[in-house]
Amino acid sequence: MPGAKKSPFIVLESRNGQPLSLASVYDMFVVTRERFPDVFPSDFSTHVLRHTWNDRFMANAHAQGLKDALARQVNNYIMGWTKTSQQSANYSQREIERQASHLLMGMLSIGVQSGPPIGAQEGPPFNCEDRLTVGACFALLAA
């Protein structure tokens, strides 16, 4: 493919070695969603993948013991953002919400040795992390 070794892009058009257009990339995701609706969610896109990657990066950074400021700087570097960019917070919001939910549940279970969490009803286990936002979980438990 002419010029492929000189291109900074990973995926190139096979005909002329130019980068794929945004429309072509978008169409690839549309076709993928349509062909495999049981595998890929209806919102599967580059944007969703960017959020998912950042969520996983921040979860891994925290699991490795990186402090928030350093994790953000490393994330900014990898994603090509400036050192002081706030994009990492925007793109890792789901991970922030997951951590907040986990911490809230930990706070609510302090001193509770057994049985369902405070506010749980009879029946299936109550799990704020899986089904509710932190605010809704707190409101339910505070009721």
Task: Describe the protein in words.
There is one protein chain. The protein is mainly α and 143 residues long. The chain contains seven helices and no strands. Mean pLDDT is 77; it is low at 111-127.
Per DSSP E runs of 2 or more residues, the count of β-strands stands at 0
Radius of gyration: 21 Å
Straight-line N-to-C gap: 65 Å
Largest sheet properties: none
| Helix content, binned percent | 55-70%
Count of helix runs: 7
The ordered string of helix (H) and strand (E) elements is HHHHHHH
Going by helix content, strand content and strand pairing, the class is: mainly alpha
Q: Could you tell me the strand content as a percent range?
A: under 5%
Give average pLDDT, whole number. Answer: 77
Query: In terms of per-residue confidence, which ranges show pLDDT below 50 for 5 or more consecutive residues?
Result: 111-127
The dominant shape is flat
Please tag this protein with its features.
mainly alpha, 143 residues, 55% helix
What's a concise summary of this model?
The protein has 143 residues and is mostly helical. The chain is 55% helix and 0% strand.
